[in-house]
Design a protein that fits this description.
Largest sheet: 3 strands, antiparallel
Number of domains: 2
Radius of gyration: 24 Å
Structural class: alpha+beta
Number of helices: 5
Distance between the termini: 39 Å
Number of strands: 5
Helix content: 25-40%
Strand content: 5-15%
Oligomer: single chain
Low-confidence stretches: 1-27
Shape: elongated
Mean pLDDT: 80
Length: 201
C-alpha cells in the first residue's frame, strides 16, 4: 500500500482543503459501509453545502444519507452534537460570566452503553469469581474506557460511573448465595474495594 499523499479539493466556492487520503491496492478510497462524517464551518452557505456534497458524492464516490444528514448550529440555545461517543455543546459559564464555553463530555448514549457493559461484567453469572479477579477485570475495562473519554470535561460522567461500579459490586457480592462475601471487620465494603485496588475512572 503506498504512503498517504495530500490531495487538493477545489470547488466553485474557491475553497481549498488538504486531505490525506490512503488509497487501497485497487486504486480507490476505502471507507466502511456506514461512515459518519462531521464537517465544521464558521459560516454556512449554499456554496459550502454544494461543495461538500459534490466532493463526497462526486470525487470520493460516497452516497450521502440525506434523511440522517442535518445541520447543527452549536451557538443556538440547547443545540448539541453527538459524535464518536462525545457530546459537543455550548454551556453557560460556571462562574457566572456572560460568555459560554464549548463543553465536551461523554454522551448519554455512551454512558448507557458503559452501564450495560458493566452489568455484563458484574452479573450473577460471575458470582463464582474471586473478588481480586473481578476487580482486576474491572480495572482493565475502566482504564481503557477512561483513557478514551478523558478529553474535555468528563468529571461528572466519571463520578457517575464510579458510583455505579461500586454500588453494583456491593450488590453483586451481597447476593452471592453459596459464597457470600464479607469485608474485614471494621472496614466498609467500599473501603475494602479501594484497598483491593479498584480504580476510579
Amino acid at each position: 500500500m503506498p504512503e498517504a499523499k495530500p490531495y487538493r479539493l477545489e470547488g466553485k466556492s474557491r475553497m481549498r482543503r488538504e486531505l490525506h487520503v490512503r488509497f487501497c491496492e485497487g486504486g480507490g478510497v476505502r471507507f466502511p459501509s456506514a461512515t459518519r462524517l462531521v464537517v465544521l464551518a464558521r459560516t454556512l452557505s449554499p456554496a459550502l453545502l454544494g461543495f461538500v456534497g459534490s466532493t463526497l458524492e462526486g470525487w470520493l464516490g460516497l452516497k450521502i444519507n440525506r434523511t440522517k444528514t442535518r445541520v447543527v448550529t452549536l451557538r443556538e440555545e440547547k443545540a448539541s452534537l453527538d459524535f464518536l461517543g462525545y457530546t459537543f455543546r455550548y454551556d453557560r459559564d460556571r462562574y457566572g460570566r456572560a460568555q459560554r464555553y464549548l463543553n465536551v463530555l461523554p454522551s448519554a448514549k455512551a454512558l448507557a452503553r458503559e452501564r450495560a457493559r458493566l452489568r455484563e461484567k458484574i452479573s450473577p453469572r460471575r458470582g463464582f469469581w474471586p473478588l481480586p479477579a473481578l476487580v482486576a477485570d474491572l480495572n482493565r475495562h475502566l482504564k481503557g474506557w477512561a483513557n478514551y473519554f478523558r478529553y474535555g470535561y468528563p468529571r461528572e460522567a466519571f463520578r457517575a460511573i464510579n458510583r455505579y461500579v461500586r454500588c453494583r459490586v456491593a450488590g453483586h457480592l451481597k447476593r452471592r448465595s453459596q459464597r457470600p462475601f464479607r469485608p474485614p471487620e471494621g472496614v466498609t465494603l467500599h473501603a475494602h474495594l479501594q484497598q483491593l485496588g479498584l480504580v476510579a475512572p
